[in-house]
């Protein structure tokens, strides 16, 4: 266990915010993770667990210990003629895991290509894109109890998945460190191209042979056309969740805003947050070193030397403006530190 003092976190968050942690360490195995947690406990320090840093906004220096999760490994643990169960270390890069599955022709996560972050964060957020959510391919996860230091297993029901939600963001927030995730994938692909943009991209590219690789390539092309590369412009992808409103409210809004898009879901109608933000006039706006991306209003960006507080303040102004114009409260997907 190597502890570094006053360590810059700029390289460990996709916004590229230059804040420091009082102490910093990397955990490449369970033993070093346990030792790091015990060390912080003995010193009475706060602990921040970092994966890919793609879902955090650093608004200040962190006064405790930051533990960067580097738990790696991909292992087949069970298979049948139709399905395969694969355990993946929490520190594996998410897109690298998708590429690994594609290489072995394991289907189920191709629609989730190019999502930033690590495997360990995927069930916390119940990440989703282009018609697929993690809960559809999730089997179980292992997590370290930060109090007892025991490993606990969670199945899908125990995770209480919701839209970009899980129990780890609420009742069990900061209680566990996810160490590995088991996915159940298909050997015989069930291609999901219901999302219109995928169909359009496949058609544009003249794809005749519909494979999971073709779907992944289409998703990557779509994401790259809409979302800035964090290596070039600091960002955390979609900053806000798409809000769900009642059928009655949607019907009322449709009267005032005939072009408002909406998609029926179990609890009402889901409205694209990006559309709301764009209609409120924020798309492409720049304020010093921070702003709203010119191609996708759902993405807030750091143009170089932006501060986390400035992005947080911009997010609040956007929320206030959307609430005033549409009566809809936007909720951030990003965690403020």
UniProtKB/TrEMBL annotation:
EC code(s) of this entry: 1.3.1.98
Active-site positions on this chain: 164, 238 (proton donor), 333
Subcellular location: Cytoplasm
Cofactor(s) the record lists: FAD
Pathway: Cell wall biogenesis; peptidoglycan biosynthesis
Main localization, broad class: cytoplasm
Keyword Zinc found: no
Catalysed conversion reaction: UDP-N-acetyl-alpha-D-muramate + NADP(+) = UDP-N-acetyl-3-O-(1-carboxyvinyl)-alpha-D-glucosamine + NADPH + H(+)
Keywords of the record: Cell cycle, Cell division, Cell shape, Cell wall biogenesis/degradation, Cytoplasm, FAD, Flavoprotein, NADP, Oxidoreductase, Peptidoglycan synthesis
Xref: PROSITE patterns: FAD_PCMH
Keyword presence, Transport: no
Residues annotated as domain FAD-binding PCMH-type: 16-188
Endpoints of the signal sequence: none
Record Gene3D superfamilies: 3.30.465.10, UDP-N-acetylenolpyruvoylglucosamine reductase, C-terminal domain, Uridine Diphospho-n-acetylenolpyruvylglucosamine Reductase, domain 2
HAMAP family for this protein: MurB
Family: Belongs to the MurB family.
Its job: Cell wall formation.
Name of the molecule in the record: UDP-N-acetylenolpyruvoylglucosamine reductase
Native organism: Algoriphagus taiwanensis
Organism phylogeny: Bacteria, Pseudomonadati, Bacteroidota, Cytophagia, Cytophagales
